[in-house]
Design goal:
Length: about 140
């Protein structure tokens, strides 16, 4: 299995997009054995995807073609022994003060939180911390 973390710029900041994305993503990911987490903060998507390599690669190819975002850049891609989000076909991290504290602990001071500029070297560690926090919405 592998994990893949990327950041991209949302075409719109409407929560409607998120709802639509997750409505399609969850049944698809369940069928494909994909788990992970998605976060939208200040117009930036940051997503963690894990599963069998060919499944993650195929999904990411599809996601790259999606007009609801642009400029996707891979921050982290690595082999994994076990899943970090085994309970989530695609968890939605709801942004709150605790998620912000975690973000800042890995990325230092920023005036406006910019997940697109997050440090790729700590992106996985940040998601592991987020995974252990309580701020998850089933939609
Ligand atoms: C930020 C973002 C994250 C997405 N995450 C997923 C995902 O985890 N799983 C998924 O199936 N589709 C996801 N999508 C939607 C896909 O891009 C695509 O619309 C969907 O899989 C349906 O593809 P199809 O129309 O080719 O069947 C995401 C889209 C965006 C913009």
């Amino acid at each position: 299995m592998i994990r893949l973390i990327y950041a991209s710029k949302a075409a719109s900041n409407l929560p409607l997009d998120l709802k639509d994305i997750l409505a399609v993503a969850r049944p698809h990911n369940r069928a494909a054995g994909i788990t992970g987490a998605l976060c939208l903060i200040n117009g930036v998507y940051i997503q963690y995807i894990e599963g069998e390599e060919e499944d993650v690669t195929a999904l990411f190819q599809r996601i790259l073609r999606d007009p609801r975002h642009s400029g996707a850049k891979v921050m982290d891609r690595a082999a994994i022994e076990s899943r970090a989000f085994s309970a989530w076909t695609m968890g939605l991290l709801t942004w709150d003060p605790e998620s912000e504290v975690i973000f800042r602990s890995f990325n230092g001071r920023q005036e406006v939180l910019d997940a697109y500029a997050a440090d790729p070297r700590t992106a996985n560690a940040m998601f592991q911390k987020w995974a252990a926090s309580a701020n998850w919405m089933t939609v």
